[in-house]
Amino acid sequence: MSLTVDCDDCGGLGFRVRRCECTWGGDRLIVEGGEYRDEAYADCRLCQGDGSVAEPCHRCGRGGRRRAQLVVTVVNLDTGAAASRRLVPGRLDPPPDRERVGRAGKLVARLCDAVGVRGLRPRWGRRSAEETLYWLPPQWRPELAARERWALEAEALARHDYDPWWVFVGRSSETSPPPDPRAELSRLCALADLLQLDLVVEARRRSYHEVVWDIRYELPGSPVPLDPQVHAHAWDLPSAIADTSFRSAMCGLDERGRHAPLHTVRPVAAAGVPPEVDLDRLGRAVLAELVGDAPGAQAIWRDGRWWNTALHPTGSVETLHERETGQIVRYVAESLRRATEPPDPAWWGEPIPHRPCPDCRPGSRLRRCDCRRGASGPDPKCPDCSGAGLAPTGRCCSTCRDSGRIPAAVAVTVTDLRRVSHETWRPDVDEAAPVVTHQPNGKPVHQLGPHRRLARYATTFGVRPADLTRLDSDWPVDQDLLDGIVTVDEPGIDPAHRHVEQLAARLPGARLFVLAAVPDAPPLADLLRLAHALDLTAVLTYRDHRLDAGDPLKIQGERWRIRLAARDAQVGAEFPFGASVEAAVARCVEHLDSHLLAAVPREPDRPVPAPQAAPSPPVPDPAELLRRVGRHYAGQPVVAAFDRTGCRLWLTEESGVVPLAQAATIDDAVSALRL
To answer: What is the DSSP string of 442-464?
Structure first.
């Protein structure tokens, strides 16, 4: 039985002829977003009014064939053992049930027993052991002839050709405790009190009267988002809690709080969080607000208690988007408001004054023209703005992120999720900010006093400056913020005012949230052991910036990057961006599924990796030895590749990578360099 099938999108041709996008809205310039007419647009830029276009088939990569196999692998991080099972037509494991569906639970359990795994680690990959492996088509029946039955099974397995390798990671020494939705919701409430935020539990009606739940953090007074549940699929409150982590609840706070009221934060004692939230009572209270034609309801945790309110429609919001066809698509979304607003939070301080943004016009697409960058004024001959200084664009304003406000102060919240520090930064009159260097174009670069440098919080919370990250985006804090560096574009501007206004204008509600904690990442040795068990290559890149120490225009400290690749993959120039090895490991684990997909051969006739590995000794942590090599070649990225065959070292230069050494271990490779 062949392990590839003809692509059903293109019929094996490698390209397909499809209906043009212009047929969705018909022969009109302005079309409705949700309307379909199956009529070609006469002036279409793509099909010139024909209604059909030919394009390469992206489903099969223009090859015409798709892979009909799926591999499930379980790795034991404690022993380094791995076991895999390849699903192909004629060998489906587990067999389909009465509904012609095969689920991963029993297969993963058998593989866990084979390698001695007691509990799977939830952070390694985004797969669940309860996911569905395959759905057989209705024509499939056990009594069919083998060739017909295998063809239908191949069709079902080919649906996973975009993600044909499922890897589950676990340990034999410990098991993950079962999730407790009540305790997790209590933890989210406690963090809301710590950070002085609202925790919003929301239920909204969807089509066919379905109710979808979402949990997120918001700034008090923020408008109700138009549709915050684009990616929400929880049908009840416990499922929503299970799908929500602290990071996911914080995600999008920047956009949701763009128009929140501007207030300082004054520390107040937390009103207290109940040890366990009564989910049934909370869910009933939210659903009780969904009476009549109310499109949604919320429960808001603020000042130590829940506030329930219905959501009422207030009108519609129209947005216009230009298609490649040349048509303008009109989308209309219903705007909502809370029926009753909770009382102002007790921790709100005084309002923060602000001025209008000079680089955009709220309610329009006019933004600062590029001709003003680095110039004293607009270019009268500019083809975009004709000297007006403002030009239409689809991008948000780079100065205020479309909030239209330039606040005069910023509230800084730094936490390790146990302790917290709230400060308000206001520029002082004649604040000292000496010039420390100049930009290449001659603009002066100032450094503010220690009280304007976020790096000082590292000492307060007992971490490194490299461990300070943005709480709402998981990105390292910008180096200029760490060191209080600000560039003044025009003469006569006070550096402290420039620094505070530039920072506050881009933040939700003029609030900066910083996490001061070492990244919650597994040891680097665990990641290397995983790579060895999967027969992959772990590629580590390290760059030492000690030669740039003290230069405010250059990166300080060290940078790391870690990724997994196929063992025969070519290693090229790598440029690291992680501020610490822990941050690089955490990012690699977070995107593990993407690394595994990149390690699968692109050719559909080549099999998906199905590693089988016996227990192996622990892999030593190579970080210090790699730092030793990086110090010798300071300023140049050093690349190290680890696989089952040994270790290879390269040095990144302008022409590419230059081999340095190759040995069975990194100790032998570094010794061969005779540094």
So the answer is: S-EEEE--GGG-TTHHHHHHTS-
Sign, Cα dihedral of 513, 514, 520, 524: positive
Question: Which tokens sit at 259?
Answer: 């128009």
Asked whether the CA dihedral 10, 14, 17, 18 is positive or negative, the reply is positive
Residues, the chain, total?
675
Least confident of 252-266, 428-442, 639-653: 428-442
CB atoms within 10 A of CB 494: 18
Helix/strand/coil (H/E/C) assignment for every residue in 212-275: EEEEEEECCCCCCCCCCCCCCCECCHHHHHHCCCHHHHHCCHHHHCCCCCCEEECCCCCCCCCC
Q: Are 191 and 143 within 8 A, CB to CB?
A: no
Dist. CA 339–CA 665, nearest whole Å: 66
Encoded tokens for 264: 């300082």
- CA distances for 97 relative to 92, 233, 243, angstroms: 11, 25, 27
Show Cβ contacts of residue 6 under 8 Å, excluding neighbours closer than 6 positions: 12, 64, 65, 66
**Cβ of 70: how many Cβ atoms within 10 Å?**
25
Q: Which of 88-102, 362-376, 393-407 has the lowest mean pLDDT?
A: 362-376
Task: Assess contact for 661 and 670: CB atoms under 8 A.
Answer: yes
**Does residue 466 sit in helix, strand or coil?**
helix
Q: How far apart are CA 67 and CA 608, in angstroms?
A: 9
Torsion of CA 579, 585, 588, 589, to 10 degrees: -140
| Angle CA 19–21–27, to nearest 5 | 95
C-alpha span between 481 and 556 (Å, rounded): 13
pTM tops 0.90: no
CB-facing half-sphere around the CA of 218: CA atoms within 13 A? 24
* DSSP for 568-609, written as a single string: TPPP------BSSHHHHHHHHHHTHHHHHHHHS-SSTTSPPP
What Rg, from alpha-carbon coordinates, does the chain have? 28
Find how far residue 482's CA is from the centre of its chain. Answer: 23
User: What pLDDT score was predicted for residue 469?
Assistant: 92
Of the pLDDT bands very low, low, confident and very high (cuts 50, 70, 90), residue 491 is: confident
